[in-house]
């Protein structure tokens, strides 16, 4: 059955690697068939720094997901994040040779391709070019220019830039794990698709995805993504701080953080104490919860403030750009107690925790709808969307062939020709995926 093709999201994170298998159910929701996870050892701050270890972790996660779902995995959609990702605003224009003709797809492609000629720093490449709004002959705030007349077409773009080598390394790991790359997506975008509702994106919202190694930000307003940023700190630095501050080993620090950690120090009484077994015959250590939350608080404040700077960079303080829906927190780091209150206190913006159940089938496992899996769910959805698009394109090609045959027959006066279905413009990510694929094929 062609309809129920599976899609696999592969979230290569700093702390964990998750492989998630899903398909669309009859109601158009994503049904998760299986999930596999492995400890991620070869990734630092969202960037692969040990290919061999990453390949092993990917294979482990994939095998686990295959065993749970009984499906064979061949293609995956992966996410890219990491400290090398930055975004910039850019406006560009084209002058059209003939303003008597309406603006069509090709004009927009020409404009977007022009943005791709921007000169980047060495080793950087444009990952995404997202048009914000268009101007035609000086008339501003046009959302959809296709079909309008005009000589000068200009647009503001949100351009996301990343390091080619990092993206290729991820491609390399996937390929060496015996998998095909179905698509590449920016992780903040994937998480956003999984946890945000359309109303929030319209009203204006900032999605903060706190991962192990990085914190990703995506800002939406009027349904369009307006700003993205990756901040090179996440849950792991909090664990590091606890480890240093309490002189304990990492495993214990992580457990302390998860079990007793809180982002709000006023919460704990002075006499609340946790005892931690000493190493190999040493005395146990006693740690007050107040101290623990002070350590966590200091680091979380730092992360949140950096994110808030990015939200202000987008222009949240201007009336027109105000983010009415406030902030949505997701990712593993969003499970920290009292984080919501702290974020509201620092930013003064409404905050909620985002669970990736926006598009999941109703009977999904509780575990999957945890903020921990937001990116993985988003990647699965992205893969499903991509398959849908390919299907529509195939159907459109078939129809075009039939159209040509109809057109070849003599037309009676009254007959009206049906225009061929408009092919969706390929997103730059599809082109990027192809480029990474080509590069890997030639590099073998």
UniProtKB/TrEMBL annotation:
One of its GO terms (cellular component) is cell division site. Its main location: membrane. It is a peripheral membrane protein. GO terms for biological process: FtsZ-dependent cytokinesis. It comes from the Bacteria. It is found in: Cell membrane. Residues 48-114 form a coiled coil. Residues 7-195 form the SHS2 domain. InterPro entries: ATPase_NBD, Cell_div_FtsA, FtsA/MreB, SHS2_FtsA. Self-interacts. Interacts with FtsZ. Belongs to the FtsA/MreB family. HAMAP family: FtsA (MF_02033). NCBIfam families: ftsA. Cell division protein that is involved in the assembly of the Z ring. May serve as a membrane anchor for the Z ring. This is Cell division protein FtsA.
């Amino acid at each position: 059955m062609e309809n129920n093709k599976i899609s696999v999201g592969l979230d290569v994170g700093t702390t964990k690697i998750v492989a998630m298998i899903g398909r669309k159910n009859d109601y158009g929701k994503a049904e998760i068939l299986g999930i596999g996870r492995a400890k991620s050892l070869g990734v630092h701050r969202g960037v692969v720094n040990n290919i061999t270890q990453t390949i092993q972790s990917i294979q482990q996660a994939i095998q686990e997901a295959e065993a749970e779902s009984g499906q064979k995995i061949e293609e995956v959609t992966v996410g890219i994040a990491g400290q090398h990702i930055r975004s910039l605003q850019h406006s560009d224009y084209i002058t059209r040779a003939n303003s008597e003709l309406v603006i069509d797809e090709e004009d927009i492609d020409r404009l977007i391709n022009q943005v791709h000629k921007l000169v980047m720093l060495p080793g950087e490449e444009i990952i995404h070019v997202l048009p914000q709004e268009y101007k035609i002959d000086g008339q501003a705030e046009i959302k959809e220019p296709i079909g309008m007349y005009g000589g000068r077409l200009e647009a503001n773009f949100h351009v996301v830039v990343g390091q080619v080598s990092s993206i290729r390394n991820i491609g390399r790991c996937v390929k060496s794990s015996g998998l095909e790359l179905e698509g590449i997506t920016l992780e903040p975008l994937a998480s956003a698709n999984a946890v945000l509702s359309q109303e929030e994106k319209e009203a204006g919202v900032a999605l903060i995805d706190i991962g192990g190694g990085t914190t990703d930000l995506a800002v939406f307003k009027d349904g369009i993504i307006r700003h993205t940023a990756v901040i090179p700190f996440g849950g792991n630095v909090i664990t590091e701080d606890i480890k240093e501050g309490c002189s304990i080993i990492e495993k214990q620090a992580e457990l302390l953080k998860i079990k007793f950690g809180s982002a709000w120090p006023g919460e704990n009484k002075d006499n609340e104490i946790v005892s931690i077994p000493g190493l190999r015959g040493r005395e146990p250590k006693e740690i007050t919860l107040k101290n623990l939350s002070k350590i966590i608080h200091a680091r979380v404040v730092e992360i949140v403030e950096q994110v808030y700077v990015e939200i202000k960079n987008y222009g949240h303080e201007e009336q027109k750009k105000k983010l009415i829906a406030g902030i949505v927190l997701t990712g593993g780091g969003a499970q920290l107690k009292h984080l919501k209150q702290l974020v509201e206190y620092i930013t003064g913006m409404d905050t909620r925790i985002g669970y990736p159940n926006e598009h999941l089938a109703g009977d999904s496992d509780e575990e999957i709808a945890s903020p921990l899996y937001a990116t993985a769910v988003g990647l699965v959805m992205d893969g499903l969307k991509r398959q849908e698009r390919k299907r529509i394109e195939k159907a459109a090609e078939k129809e075009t062939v039939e159209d040509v045959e109809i057109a070849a027959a003599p037309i009676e006066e009254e007959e009206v020709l049906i225009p061929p279905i408009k092919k969706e413009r390929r997103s730059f990510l599809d082109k990027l995926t192809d480029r990474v694929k080509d590069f890997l094929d030639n590099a073998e």
